[in-house]
Amino acid sequence: MDNDNKENFSQTWWKWGDSNKSFHLSDYPKLKRFLENKWEKTLIEDLNLSEDDQLIEISTFTLNDFQDYYQQLEKSQFSNENIDRLKYGFGKGYQDALNILTNKNLIVPDFVLYPESTEDVRHILKKSEEHGVAIMTFSGGTNVTECFSIEGNRKWVCALNMQRMNKVLEIDDISLTATFECGIYGPQLEECLNDKGFTMGHFPQSFEFSTLGGWIATRSAGQESGKYGKIEDMILGLKAVTPNKTIENRDYPKHAMGIDVFPLFVGSEGTLGVIVQAKMRIHKLPQSHNWVVALFKDFESGSKALRTMVQSGKHPAICRLSDHSETKMLSLLSNSEPNGLKKYFQNFMKSYLSKKGYDKPCMLMLKFIYNHTNYTTDIKQVKKLLKANDATILPAYVSTNWEDKRFSLPYLRETLIQHRILIDMFETSTYWKNLMPLYSNIKNALDQKSDYFRNGGIIFCHISHIYNTGASLYFTLMTSQEKGNELQQWNNIKEIVTSAIYDGGGAISHHHGIGKAHRKWYNQQLNNDERSLMQAIKSYLDPNDILNPGKLFDET
Q1: Per-residue DSSP letter, 277
Q2: Dihedral sign, Cα of residue 211, residue 213, residue 216, residue 219
Q3: Over the stretch 300-320, which tens digit does the pLDDT of each residue have?
Q4: Phi then psi for 221, rounded to 5 degrees?
Q5: 468 and 444 in contact (C-beta within 8 Å)?
Q6: Which DSSP state fits 230?
Q7: Which CATH number among 3.40.50.300, 3.30.420.180, 3.40.50.2000, 3.30.70.3450 corresponds to the domain 288-406?
Q8: What is the CATH class of 168-284?
Q9: Does the first or last residue of the chain, that is N or C, have fewer Cβ atoms within 10 Å of its Cβ?
């Protein structure tokens, strides 16, 4: 690679979120000290983008090629700049970060296109099919399952950046629906609705930097799903463009008119078409909310209390029951050391709770939201139910630290990785009767099939997204990186944990999606007839396999 084919960039393009925000492990002294004591080592930041790691070859897809292929687009809708190819070529998973930090041969799209209308998307897909250009649809770029990895031998790969298609097309305040273009970001969508007294109620942790189209394409779940549902519960209809077709359903509140086609695109991860518009349910803004915080003596009794609560008709918007390991980890995320009266009170509470049998406490946080202000009776009933399951009720303000940081916690990822810490998340869902067996199965698999715990590995978990029939388990793993073997170390852990989820009867994903990372297990669950059906649909909508090839059921 000679200097004429190189370009240098800011070292922030690969990181989470707002480049003006900076988070460092040293900002969390209790967490840093805990990890250093656990692993008996001093944590230093020594995994960084070196000068060479920031360089990729200049694209051979030129402005002349663009003007020849896509005559209806303006020059401003095209980029082959290295910084754009990098920014729109990766997600935000641990494996993405490692590839960027350790790989000298990054594979990125050849160019980026920015459609501004449905007609632009039709033109791009039609011409891309004619010229053999693979299309990787990019929205906010917060995916963590390698959905943007480039698979197979393709002459050209285009990142289709949907962010300019961000209009609010209609807000129906009588029927409580709203129609949007799918490149709209979460904050922009909510601001438009809030101004008119409404909300869609979808707040994933990636809310600030993800888009409606990405939510739909990956079956996203927001943190307030207990009130508003997952994204598939919110969507009434959509418009999707394929290389030679436009699919748009006529939508109704409910109907009995045979088979709906539009749900095929929900969770399709860019493999069947580009979702350009969607009609969504909206709700009046809540007038009030109330937090209930409690401690349980163990994870299982907390799980039982949640099941009893939700099956009795009490549905919190947010539910988070942390196991003991996560409860301890949450206590380490404050930015300062306790001192004086605060330290005395904390030590007193630990001693008091230990004497009461809370040696390994598990914290529960519930947020209830209402369209009225008379919720006292409801909250009293919830607290009574929790106490009947041996819970101790804590002051509601205990939830403040988590609530204030719930959208900023992902910023910690990069500083942990740069301090040579493997940090990754795995999530699943299962029925209530299988929840605790699955929880144990995953930890047992790590113990029996690896040296993860013997090498100081940490795993912690919380229950969230609770339903009458079951719930989601969300695991976080942290361990010291094996220098020089970072990706293989992650692959080995990924294989053990995801196989344990699959073998234990859990969904491969509850809300992160499939991408490349989960494709193996997704295909294991499909029988031959299901796979043939899906491949027939793919062949009809995308006969030349230009739409995000190599994902979901496509193992080419």
Answers
A1: E
A2: negative
A3: 999 999 999 999 999 999 999
A4: -125, 135
A5: no
A6: -
A7: 3.30.70.3450
A8: alpha beta
A9: C
